[in-house]
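Aim 2 progress update. The chain analyzed this quarter is reproduced below.
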Amino acid sequence: MCLDYGDQAALRELREYSRCALDAFSIDLFNFASSSESRQSSQSSTCTANGPGMSTTSQKHRDFVAEPMGDKPVTALSGIGDVLGKKLTEQGFDKAFVVLGQFLLLRKDCELFSEWLKDTSGANSRQAASCSQCLAEWCDAFL
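Predicted structure tokens:
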């Protein structure tokens, strides 16, 4: 196949255009991937019981997040004591995995779950946030 000078110049121009377009696409793809990673990391840390920048958790919280849930009672969850545990049990949420199911049904939305927990058991904001954070961290570790 023989190309005359005009065709060769057009081919060089097309190659240059393609190279520039590919570079621009690569940069866009890199920027999208970087912003996607930062969104994912910020989503996994949206459940904070103590406000932004504070990460103090109870021993109960650390123990729960450190191992598989198994058949633990609802009172094993951080923020859920005997009184709230009894109220949740009366409503059918007797095991931690049942509460986890509700957390997952609410699409791991910590604010929505906290509101649900407050409405269902009478938990205060601190207790609800602590439980939300506990479940979110458990999901990050085991799901």
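The longest helix spans residues 5-44. The chain has a mean pLDDT of 80. These observations will guide the mutagenesis experiments scheduled for the next reporting period.
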